[in-house]
Specification:
heterodimer, A: globular, B: 130 residues, mainly alpha
C-alpha cells in the first residue's frame, strides 16, 4: 500500500467515526433536551429517553453483527460479548427508567388521564401493548449475553448455536424498535 | 458411533434452550397476569400485592404509581429466573435440537406478542369469560 492509499483509507475511517459520533450526539438531543422542558418530571423523561435511544442505537449496531454471525463469517467474539453485555445493561436501564416515568404517566392529570379523555385508543391499544413488549429486549439480550459468555469463542464451532444467538439479537432489536416508536408517539401525544 | 474430538470441549445447546425457554415462560406470565388483573378489582389487587416491594408500586396524586404492573413484573421475574435455573441444571449437559426448538420459540413469541394486543385478544377473552 502506498502513502496515498494509506492516507485515503484512514480518512474514510475517521469520517465514518465522526459521522457516527455526530449522529449519536444529535439523536441524543431528542431526549437530552427533555432535561430543560417546563415540567416537574424532566429528569425521569430525560433519563428514560436517553436510555431508550442508546438501547436502540446499540441494538441496531448489534443487528449488523448478527447478520455476520448468521452468514457464518468469522467475527471477533470478544468484542461482541462486551457489546452484548452493554446492550443488556442499557435495556435494563430502559426498563427501570420506564417504570419511573410510568408513575407520572398514570398520575393525577397525567398523560393517561388526558389520552383516555381525548384519544382513548392510544392508551387502550397502544400503551397497553407498549408497556409489556418494551420489557422483552432485556431478557432476550440477557440470554444472548449468557450464551456468548457461557460458550466463549468455541461458539463459532457450533453453527446452529451461533445462528440462534444472531436471531435472538434481531428479535431484541424488533421489540426495542417497536417500543421506541410507540413511546415516541405517546410522548408526542401528551408529554409528562 | 462418532467420538468427540479429544482436543475440543463439547458444546451442548441445552443451556441456551433453557435460557430462551425460561424467558418465553416469563413473557407468558406477564401476559396472563395482565389479563387476570383485568377481570376484577379483587384479582387486580391480588396481582398488585406481589409487587409492593418495587419502589413506586403504590401511591396517588400527580406523582402516581405503577400499580399492578409491579406485580406482573414480579411474577414474570420469578418465573423467568426459577425456570432458567431449573432448566439449566436439567439440560446443561444435553444437546437439544435448535432446529426443532426455533419454530416453537418464534411461534410462542409471536403468539404472546399478539395476546398483548387488545384488539386481537379481547374478542377471544370475551368468548371465554362470557
Amino acid at each position: 500500500m502506498n502513502t496515498d492509499q494509506y492516507y485515503h483509507g484512514n480518512l474514510a475511517k475517521y469520517l465514518v467515526r465522526t459521522q457516527a459520533s455526530l449522529a449519536l450526539l444529535i439523536l441524543l438531543l431528542l431526549a437530552g433536551l427533555d432535561f430543560f422542558f417546563p415540567t416537574n418530571y424532566r429528569l425521569q423523561a430525560g433519563i428514560h429517553g436517553i436510555s431508550a435511544i442508546s438501547s436502540v442505537v446499540v441494538g441496531t449496531y448489534l443487528t449488523h453483527r448478527a447478520f455476520t454471525i448468521i452468514r457464518g463469517v468469522h467475527i471477533n467474539y470478544h468484542s461482541l460479548r462486551r457489546w452484548a453485555l452493554g446492550s443488556t445493561v442499557l435495556n435494563f436501564l430502559g426498563a427501570v427508567s420506564g417504570n419511573w416515568i410510568y408513575m407520572r404517566y398514570r398520575g393525577e392529570n397525567g398523560p393517561r388521564d388526558w389520552i383516555l379523555a381525548n384519544a382513548p385508543d392510544f392508551h387502550n391499544y397502544m400503551m397497553e401493548f407498549k408497556e409489556f413488549i418494551t420489557l422483552f429486549p432485556f431478557p432476550i439480550m440477557a440470554a444472548v449475553t449468557f450464551g456468548l459468555y457461557y460458550y466463549g469463542d468455541a461458539i463459532a464451532e457450533r453453527r446452529d448455536i451461533s445462528q440462534f444467538v444472531g436471531i435472538l439479537i434481531l428479535l431484541s432489536w424488533l421489540f426495542l424498535f417497536l417500543g421506541f416508536v410507540t413511546g415516541l408517539v405517546l410522548a408526542k401525544l401528551r408529554f409528562v | 458411533m462418532n467420538q468427540p474430538q479429544q482436543h475440543t470441549k463439547q458444546l451442548f445447546s441445552g443451556p441456551l434452550i433453557a435460557a430462551t425457554l425460561s424467558l418465553v415462560l416469563g413473557f407468558y406470565t406477564l401476559m396472563i397476569s395482565h389479563h387476570v388483573s383485568r377481570v376484577s378489582k379483587a384479582l387486580d389487587k391480588m396481582v398488585h400485592s406481589y409487587g409492593y416491594w418495587i419502589p413506586g408500586s403504590v401511591g396517588t396524586g400527580p406523582d402516581g404509581s405503577i400499580g399492578s404492573y409491579s406485580g406482573k413484573e414480579t411474577l414474570a421475574l420469578l418465573v423467568w429466573f426459577s425456570a432458567w435455573l431449573v432448566f439449566h441444571l436439567l439440560w446443561k449437559n444435553q444437546d437439544i435440537s435448535i432446529k426443532r426448538w426455533l419454530p416453537f420459540f418464534l411461534g410462542s413469541l409471536a403468539f404472546v406478542t399478539l395476546c398483548l394486543f387488545h384488539p386481537f385478544i379481547d374478542p377471544i377473552l370475551r368468548l371465554i369469560l362470557g
